[in-house]
Amino acid sequence: MILAAIDKDGKENEFNEENLHGKRTVLYFYPKDNTSGCTKEACDFRDNMNRLLPLAEVIGVSPDSVASHQKFQQKQGLNFTLVSDPEHKLAIKYDVWKEKSMYGRKYMGIERSTFVIDAQVNIEKEWRKVKVAGHVDEVLAYLAQK
To answer: Which of 81, 89, 96, 142 is the most buried (most CB within 10 A)?
Structure first.
């Protein structure tokens, strides 16, 4: 599955899951660029990158466009890849495209989730319905013990 991505240097590239072979990856799904929870989560990953990179690569995924990702990355100084999944292909594969409800209105959206993918592109660990506060510390603790 090939999707558009913005790499850590702000350049547009293609993302292919096959490129994950041989490296451990934290793949995290978030609902929308430039929203409060998603910004906090992205900035937590950014601020802990020096601790994360020796253990795993970090990739964020949302349905937002490449242009939105570029603005988000520049505005927040994000130092990891963001993948654009507007057709929800990756979200469906990882079962994070879910029915949600707000103020009694039902709609489809991303369930905030994080996966550690091993070097053979298997799911090693997953967190579903992630609460942003303290989550990156949970991920770091898990990575450090393995």
So the answer is: 96
Reported as a single tens digit per residue, the pLDDT across 113-141 is: 999 999 999 999 999 999 999 999 999 99
Domain boundaries, the chain: 2-9+25-145
3-state secondary structure of 10: coil
Supply φ then ψ for residue 64, to 5 degrees.
-60, 155
Bridge partners (DSSP) of residue 105 are: 102
Q: Is domain 2-9+25-145 given the CATH code 3.30.70.2210 in the classification?
A: no
What would the pLDDT profile of 45-80 be if each residue is shown by its tens digit?
999 999 999 999 999 999 999 999 999 999 999 999
The one catalytic residue in 6, 20, 27, 38 is 38
Active site (annotated) includes residue 43: no
Residue 58's DSSP bridge partners are 26
Q: Measure Cα distances from 146 to 51, 55, 121, 130 in Å.
A: 14, 9, 16, 21
